[in-house]
Amino acid sequence: MDCKAIADQVYALAADGADPLGPVVKEALEVIDHCLDVHGADNVSLSFNGGKDCTVLLHLYAGAIARRLQPPETMKPIHAIYIPVPSPFQTLEDFIAEATRLYDLDLFSCGHEAPEVESIVTPAPLPAGASYVDVPKAVGKANGGEGMLQALQTYKDRFPHITAILIGTRRTDPHGAKLSHRNMTDPGWPCFERVNPIINWAYTDVWAFLRRLDVPYCTLYDEGYTSLGSTFNTFPNPALLAPEVPAATESPSAVLNDAHSEAINGHESKSKSTRYLPAYELRDGNLERSGRGSSQPQIKQ
């Protein structure tokens, strides 16, 4: 990935006051630049889980770092942390591995282990040439906030020099409404400044940016998923259900969606012609999380 070209691209967009994306990109880059001024690039990490929001943030951050380089400086690996959810999608894991390669991430993975594991495990450094996918990712038997706390403590213990973490949270996300661009972690948590450069972005801004700048993103979003979590609580968004098509013209996306439904529900999909429009076709951002829940949403044909 040519990060200097990314820098030219994103800062040019930020300077274009006539472009609807210009103001939000400008604001995000200003927040990132301020974070780098205060903490220094060696002390900043990026929270990356392969979702659309942190993919936007990764692209912006790579450009911000590259813009600061002076000849003959070259890009260093970008510090990043990955905290997996239980039972992640393999397609998402594959995308994270690809993004790690494309952007040269120094990605430290720490997260949920198999349910029977109860002790905290500190992952060892990656062997030369190994992928983070191949190494244990355990912080013990934990869920929700407890799991996040343990993961961040593992990270802080391993990398005490990291003082700030960039996060792709937006205002409409759970717990995002009261956040600002910069917030310290709560008492009792490992001490980091949480930096939210795209907190004021809308769902449509995210997709306009990714598609306009041709940023690689997880292909699950092309199959109707709009918000990604675990395999057992994430489904194609019913708001993106496309009209039925004859089985003979069934798309690859439909086959993949049917396969996911079978894996989740343990039986054949009721409609082999069911397919979904891509995530960027969702016009109402309030429906972004309509595909999340304990069971697949009921769809009325």
Q: What secondary-structure arrangement, pairings included, does this model have?
A:
Layout: H1 3-15, H2 22-39, E1 44-47, H3 52-67, E2 78-82, H4 90-103, E3 105-109, H5 144-158, E4 164-166, E5 182-184, E6 193-195, H6 203-212, H7 252-265
Parallel strand pairs: 1-2, 1-4, 2-3, 4-6
Antiparallel strand pairs: 5-6
Helix pairs in contact: 1-2, 1-3, 2-3, 3-6
Catalytic activity: FMN + ATP + H(+) = FAD + diphosphate
GO molecular function: ATP binding; FMN adenylyltransferase activity
Region (Disordered): 282-301
Describe this structure in words.
The protein is of the alpha/beta class and about 300 residues long. It has 2 domains: about 5-195, HUPs (Rossmann fold), CATH 3.40.50.620; about 220-285, no CATH class. It is built from 7 helices and 6 strands, in the order ααβαβαβαβββαα. It has helices at about 5-15, 20-40, 50-65, 90-105, 145-160, 205-210, 250-265; strands spanning about 45, 80, 105-110, 165, 180-185, 195. The protein has a 6-stranded mixed β-sheet, with helices on one face. α3 (about 50-65) links the parallel β1 and β2. α3 packs across α6 (about 205-210).
